[in-house]
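Session log. Operator J.P. requested a structure for one protein chain; no other inputs attached. Running the standard single-chain path with token output.
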Amino acid sequence: MYEFDYHRAGTSKEAQDFLGKSSDAKALAGGMSIVPTLKLRLARVSDLIDLGGIGELKGISVDGKTVTISAMTIHEDVAESGDIKKLIPALSVLAGGIGDPQVRHRGTIGGSICHNDPAADYPSAVLGLGATVHTATREIAGDDFFTGLFETALEESEIVTKVSFPVPDKAGYIKFPNPASRFAIVGVFVSKTGGTVRCAVTGAGSCVFRVKQIEDALAANYAPEAIEGIALSADDLNSDIHGSAEYRAHLIPVLAKRAVIQSQGG
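Structure written below.
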């Protein structure tokens, strides 16, 4: 690990001020991604800004048909939230399947989506539910937030404060996990709200993405059999020791069918 200066911010504004003083400063949420990266010397920062002491960045609230999760809320709190289990149970399932208990008690939703690992779970929920990402200065639609491999629409000194999820009529999340890391080799999040269907895929590409073929099929008939016969191209999909691009292309509709079944209470 390279040398850096450590700062513990007390407010979001203080954190932003620290980040704005250096182009090489980074925010520290749960530390599940950035700390291993720093330990392996895969990255170098001048300053590390700890967000752990900012109380305003923690908590879950419900306002009508919207569930809002503050950025520093840990995965375990999302998984065990009674409100989320009632209103968006697929989100509870997703959070409960992240990593292991140690990770779920340290990792945060804000850290996950900002890091934007191509195999992370939360990006599929943001995209699959059409969520809105809030910062101190603006709102970013989930469809516009994830821009590429480990890249987002955030500016250098911008901090995510919360994520607002609209409550769907139905939603399901199924992943085929790496047995060691629990990251998604492929994960599929499906939701239906009125006549609108969203299908977001993580783990299969360089960044989370939506699958129009599956969305169109489910919009016409929201049932697992509607996905029968859909064959997706393996072009631009990940291929590694855990699975070829062709294997991932095959898994997407298989897991989408299971996510639909889950969303229907199966």
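Operator note: The chain has a mean pLDDT of 96.
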